[in-house]
Amino acid sequence: MSGGETETPVGCEATPGGGDKKKDSLGTAGSPAHLIIKDLGEIHSRLLDHRPVIQGETRYFVKEFEEKRGLREMRVLENLRNMIHETNEHTLPKCREIMQDNLNQVLQRLRAASDSVCRLQQREQERKKMKSQFLLSGAEEILEFVENKKQTTEEKHPSLPPPCVLNTHL
């Protein structure tokens, strides 16, 4: 390798005209070396390139998640529907019945209390009426007594002025 010769790499032929373009020494696409390189490329991509596997697993996970989520939401909605049906069919009528019974009892108690209050008010009015009649009868007796005393006093002392007249001229 001396002088002005150019070296040609092993496995490559020099092109006429002095160009440095390399020619595939492995031959055509159907040659055994080419098939081995192609197989090595596939093995390399399968062993070291995990993108297709990861993408497939991701799609599967998302699909399963959405399906399970949809099923879970459907179960929740079904449970709510059953609960509403149970409430409408059983709980509400039972509550209405109990409320009606209790309301009737409360109304009976209220009527009884109202009747008791009315009786107490009537007794109080009767008592006040009797007291006022007693006071009036006592007042009449006192007035009669005073009138009798006045007459007896006037009879005994005719020259005295009447007891209610005041002397306003001083």
What class, by secondary structure content?
Answer: mainly alpha
Mean pLDDT metric: 78
Morphology call: rod-shaped
C-alpha Rg (nearest Å) = 63 Å
Give me the count of strands: 0
Task: Provide a brief overview of the structure.
This protein is mainly α and 170 residues long. It contains 2 helices and no strands.
Kindly list the characteristics that best describe this protein.
170 residues, Biogenesis of lysosome-related organelles complex 1 subunit 5, 72% helix, Bloc1s5, mainly alpha
Structure, explained:
The chain has 170 residues and is mainly α. It has one domain. 72% of the residues lie in helices and 0% in strands. The chain has two helices and no strands. The radius of gyration is 63 Å and the shape is rod-shaped. InterPro entries: Bloc1s5 (IPR017243). Pfam families: Muted. It comes from Callorhinus ursinus (Northern fur seal). Belongs to the BLOC1S5 family. This is Biogenesis of lysosome-related organelles complex 1 subunit 5.
